[in-house]
Inverse folding.
């Protein structure tokens, strides 16, 4: 998008700032819900991190992935940094994938979210239960890992819609439609 | 005018007035009972009067509300404030009551176990998300004198052990976890010792397991298991749980028992940490 005036620049900065503030408010709210109650809950920070990654550059994605990962570690009682490393890597990969190969569409996001959260849940099960040879560890896989994964995939739909709404109002457009191009040409 | 007094009309009216006076006098003599005419009128008019009265009352109330709207509003506001104040007082009272109960329990524990040093009652901030073994976080940390590997309990029984301590928070691993083993014995017989160790299946129901029991054990349902205190990690003689079921291991070499923890581990709100006790193993040991 071509920015013509200082005013447009200023509006862009303000919108970007508000957008990031909203992103982090959502992250914090999700973290709080994850630390409340005793029920099995979706690891909603995974789709949130992915949703941010698909729309932003690799640096921002990596940083957000790390933040979300640390918060998952705290809320799920995992080794501090374990999920941060995983999510940082995932977010960078996803950011690149969406920059070069994929378009931000609901189906593609849902598929990516399902795959990534499955990998995250599976690694969690492998490292925290299976390798310690707990008796009936497979019960944890069916009763916890798979259910949490399913909840996470379902929650991705809501996360997608929420971020779609935030981005709709606050994300600068990367390209103009034919109508917008004609309109801007007429104005000039 | 003079003609009127002489007219028949005047006489009729006079007679009518006299008749009314007569009725009046007659009704006085009835001693409070209605005369038949009055009763008849009352009977006929009763339903109409009832409806009319209710309508009238409603209209009056509505008009009253309108005319006294400001007064009623003020009264409502003042009552609302009163309700808020009373609710606050009730909350305060409930908090004090619960604190008092907790302190009473703590005093009871200290009387029963004079060698214990305990933290204050601390709040359970939250359970670890999606943890099958229900580990949780409490609102005390190193700043409150908490160290890793200190026993955590309620007045009812042992809950777990601190495993990760930060300045103001600590994470507690519960007795439902297979990663925590506690030597216990039966409180009544002082024998039948074994190891309490959680398992995946029992943790699902908020239970734990007593393993490595001798095959000739004499445990029965509802026997209370208490800590043995041999490890130096847990104080001696603290309640852990009750026996629910005793069975043989699949290998036939030992028996096991399902144990229901004395404290409801899946639904904790406050616990305390036992910071010191007789026989405690120091971290350096």
């Amino acid at each position: 998008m071509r920015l013509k005036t200082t005013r447009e620049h200023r509006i862009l900065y303000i919108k970007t700032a508000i957008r990031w503030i909203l992103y982090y408010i959502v992250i914090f709210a999700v973290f709080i819900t994850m630390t409340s109650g005793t029920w099995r809950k979706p690891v909603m920070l995974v789709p949130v991190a992915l949703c941010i990654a698909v729309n932003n550059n690799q640096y921002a994605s990596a940083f957000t992935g790390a933040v979300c990962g640390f918060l998952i570690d705290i809320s799920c009682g995992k080794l501090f940094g374990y999920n941060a490393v995983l999510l940082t890597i995932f977010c960078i990969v996803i950011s690149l994938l969406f920059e070069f190969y994929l378009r931000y569409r609901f189906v593609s996001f849902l598929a990516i979210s399902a795959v990534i959260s499955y990998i995250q849940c599976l690694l969690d099960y492998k490292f925290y239960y299976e390798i310690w040879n707990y008796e009936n560890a497979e019960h944890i896989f069916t009763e916890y890992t798979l259910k949490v994964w399913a909840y996470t995939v379902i929650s991705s739909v809501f996360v997608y819609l929420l971020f779609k709404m935030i981005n709709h109002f606050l994300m600068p457009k990367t390209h103009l439609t034919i109508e917008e191009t004609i309109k801007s040409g007429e104005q000039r | 005018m003079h003609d009127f007094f002489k007219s028949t009309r005047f006489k009729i009216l006079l007679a009518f007035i006299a008749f009314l006076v007569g009725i009046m006098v007659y009704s006085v003599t009835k001693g409070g009972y209605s005369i038949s005419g009055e009763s008849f009128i009352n009977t006929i008019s009763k339903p109409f009067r009832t409806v009319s009265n209710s309508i009238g009352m409603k209209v009056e109330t509505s008009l009253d509300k309108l005319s006294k709207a400001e007064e009623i509003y003020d009264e409502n506001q003042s009552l609302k404030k009163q309700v808020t104040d009373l609710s606050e007082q009730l909350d305060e009272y409930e908090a004090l009551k619960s604190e008092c109960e907790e302190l009473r329990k703590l005093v009871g524990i200290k009387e029963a176990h004079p060698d214990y040093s305990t933290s204050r009652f601390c709040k359970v901030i939250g359970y670890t998300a999606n943890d099958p073994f229900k580990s949780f976080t409490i609102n005390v940390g190193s700043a409150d004198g908490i160290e890793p590997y200190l026993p955590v309990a309620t007045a009812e029984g042992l809950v777990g052990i601190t495993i990760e301590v930060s300045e103001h928070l600590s994470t507690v691993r519960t007795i439902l976890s297979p990663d925590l083993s506690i030597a216990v014995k039966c409180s009544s017989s002082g024998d039948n010792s074994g190891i309490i160790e959680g398992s995946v299946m029992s943790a699902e129901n908020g239970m734990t397991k007593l393993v490595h029991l001798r095959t000739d054990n004499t445990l029965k349902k509802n026997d209370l298991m208490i800590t043995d205190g041999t490890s130096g990690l847990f104080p001696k003689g603290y309640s852990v749980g009750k026996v629910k079921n005793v069975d043989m291991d699949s290998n036939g070499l030992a028996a096991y028992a399902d144990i229901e923890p004395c404290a409801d581990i899946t639904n904790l709100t406050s616990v305390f940490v036992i910071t010191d006790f007789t026989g405690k193993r120091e971290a350096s040991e």
Q: What stands out?
A: Chain A touches chain B through 22 residues (CB under 8 Å). The two ends of chain A are 15 Å apart (CA to CA). The first helix of chain A runs from residue 6 to 34. Residues 36 and 75 of chain A are 9 Å apart (CA to CA).
